[in-house]
Amino acid sequence: MTTQRDSLLDKIRALLAKTVENGCTESEALAALAKARAMMDAYAVGDDELSLTKEEKAILRREPPDSKDPYRIKQHLAVSVAKFCECKVWGDRGGILVFCGLLSDAQFATWLLDTLAAFVQNEIVGHLMGSVAEGQHRRRVIASFALGCTDQRAP
């Protein structure tokens, strides 16, 4: 069970992980750093609480058991997110995704996957606003749109 302090540290680590090397623009990286520093100052978080070494053992991060992924958005994105975050990912018996890597990498992978899945779901809503599909055809439109957004193959 994670405490409120652990949750705060997770958020700060995720912000600090947003770098140009990790795919952010320079302005995004600077904004994330400024937000992280502001949170560190406000909650008296020291660098020692955030420091991680490569000698740390691998950490497993599981999604909550009540996670829902009706169109398998997270499953389609998980491998790419894990590769980007230098983690390994697999699904356990209940279909719950598990990230394995350094604590900060696994935390960032979990956050990134949730953020990307939420983005795709919001885009599905926007797509459906202009669609006149109904019933079974509407489900096919949703599934096709979700797959199109998350497909790993280049055009």
Explain what you see.
- With 155 residues, the protein is mainly alpha-helical.
- The protein has two domains: 1-51; 58-155, no CATH class.
- Helix content is 57%, strand content 8%.
- It has six helices and three strands.
- A three-stranded antiparallel β-sheet has the order 1-3-2, with helices on one face.
- β2 (88-91) and β3 (97-101) form a beta hairpin.
- α1 (4-16) runs antiparallel to α2, α4 packs antiparallel against α5 and α5 (103-129) crosses α6.
Query: Overall pLDDT, averaged?
Result: 78
Record field, number of beta strands: 3
- Listing every helix as H and every strand as E from the N terminus to the C terminus, the arrangement reads HHHEHEEHH
Helix/strand-derived category reads mainly alpha
How much of the polypeptide forms β-strand, as a percent range? 5-15%
Rg calculated over all Cα atoms = 18 Å
Which range best describes the helical content: under 10%, 10-25%, 25-40%, 40-55%, 55-70% or over 70%? 55-70%
Measure the end-to-end span.
Answer: 43 Å
Shape field: globular
Number of domains: 2
Number of alpha- plus pi-helical segments: 6
Uncertain parts:
53-57
Q: Record the strand order, biggest sheet.
A: 1-3-2
Query: What kind of sheet is the major sheet?
Result: 3 strands, antiparallel
